[in-house]
Amino acid sequence: MTVLQKPALTWTAATPVHFDETARAWIVCSHANVEFVLLGSDDFSYDIWDRRADPVFAGMWTADGQRHTDLRKLVKDYLQVRRVQALSSTIEGIVEALVDEVAAAGTGTIDVVNDLALPLAGRFVSALLGLELDTERVVRWRRQQHSAIDAGRSPAIPDMWAYFEDLIAQRRREPRADLLSHLIAAQRDGYLVDGEPLSDWDLIGSAWSLVTASTDGAPLGYALINLAVHGMLDRAREEPDLVAGAVEEALRLYPTMPAIQVRAKRDVAVGGAVIPAGQLVHACLFTANLDPARFPDPQRFDPSRTPNRHLTFGFGAHVCIGAHFARLQLWLIIAAMLTKLPNLRLDTNRPVDHYYGRVFDALYEAHFRFDALGRTGLTDADGTAARA
Asked: Using CA of residue 213, residue 204, residue 126, residue 158, what is the dihedral sign?
């Protein structure tokens, strides 16, 4: 169990709403109060960064009001085109091919984050958005972004800006049936965002927000690790509902964004405290998801937990637009691994490498073993005969 041990929590769901001098922000912890903040579009603003300084802040996730509505509609329209309705079979094909490649390598070992989740994300982004990206480079940019925001800085990733600027220029010359071409066509046709023309900065922000949301290997790793340490991997092969439940529990226990940052638009009463206008607020998903008022025995990994109304994908108007696709990827890849990688088990001799930040968490490595198919039959990772 210690393989998943996280740092001791500074706050819990019972922590009163208060101002933290280190974070220079108001801390909101209970499930009910976090929901209140995330639903409070009239009281709280997500627009806390200067989008003119960095395109990572020009997407829908840091927008309010009509700007948020217009940016979300533009991307949602693309995701609702007819080809996306058949995306399940496309994802399944990508997953099957990738797991087959892992099995065929014959090593009997796998880092599910770097060998599976991230390559899958690259292929998924290519299939869904039509953007053929260098996954390693995107992951590096994503980590730069997370580290900077955790430190309260703008990421300033000029090679990412240049990459998308070049890609936009290419798509203007040679349009394709992809997300960027869709955005460029809307720009050409005069699409307005809160009354202003759609800018190239908006194009980069919209594309980047979807790309970076797709390149997170943590949920797969955490779901598999929890199934392994709780002795549920064998059961999961026979019980598809167990996989779906394990995914939800992993999402609840390990939100990629432990806190969502907003700013009070005016004086707002929350949980017995009054947050003054203009003050930064941390709506703590990691404590809300462990609130015993909503989740009995909240620290327990329980794939049968019902209901499981966690807040990992946000809540209200800013709920993650790709939540269904994220779940679908996870269900399919875990099912394929359990089917194609015999005797899948956690490699307890290898590290589980975490990153814990104020705004973002990440899982960098999660190693597993399985019985590889050698010339004389199934063998485990060190070449010895596998169990029957």
From this structure: negative
Element (H, E) at 34: helix 31-39
- CB-based contacts of 350: which residues, under 8 Å, 6+ apart? 111, 365, 367
pLDDT profile of the chain (388 residues), mean per 10: 65 97 95 97 93 87 95 84 62 88 92 89 76 79 85 85 90 89 95 96 89 80 93 91 94 92 97 97 96 97 96 93 84 92 93 78 90 59 46
Per-residue pLDDT, 5 = 65
Spatial separation of the C-alpha atoms in residues 121 and 291, rounded to whole Å: 31
Question: What's the confidence (pLDDT) of residue 302?
Answer: 96
DSSP 205: H
* 206 closest CA partner among 139, 274, 131: 131
Q: Which residue has the tokens 């010339």?
A: 375
Q: Are 283 and 271 in contact (CB under 8 A)?
A: no
pLDDT of residue 380: 55
Can you give the pLDDT at residue 2? 46
Q: Which residue has the tokens 């948020």?
A: 68
Helix (H, G, I), strand (E, B) or coil at 56: helix
Q: Could you tell me where the DSSP H helices lie in 81-157?
A: 82-85, 87-105, 118-129, 135-150
Given a contact cutoff of 8 angstroms between Cβ atoms, the answer to whether 28 and 282 are in contact is: yes
**pLDDT computed for residue 86 by the predictor:** 60
Structure tokens at 374: 């050698």
Give all strands (DSSP E) within the chain, no chain letters: 18-20, 25-28, 44-45, 109-111, 192-193, 196-197, 259-264, 268-270, 273-275, 280-284, 345-346, 353-356, 361-365, 367-369, 372-374, 377-379
Predicted confidence at residue 178, as pLDDT, reads: 84
Report the candidate in 54, 64, 57, 48 with the shortest Cα–Cα distance to residue 280: 48
For each of the domains in the chain, give its residue range(s) and CATH number, in order of start: 2-379 (1.10.630.10)
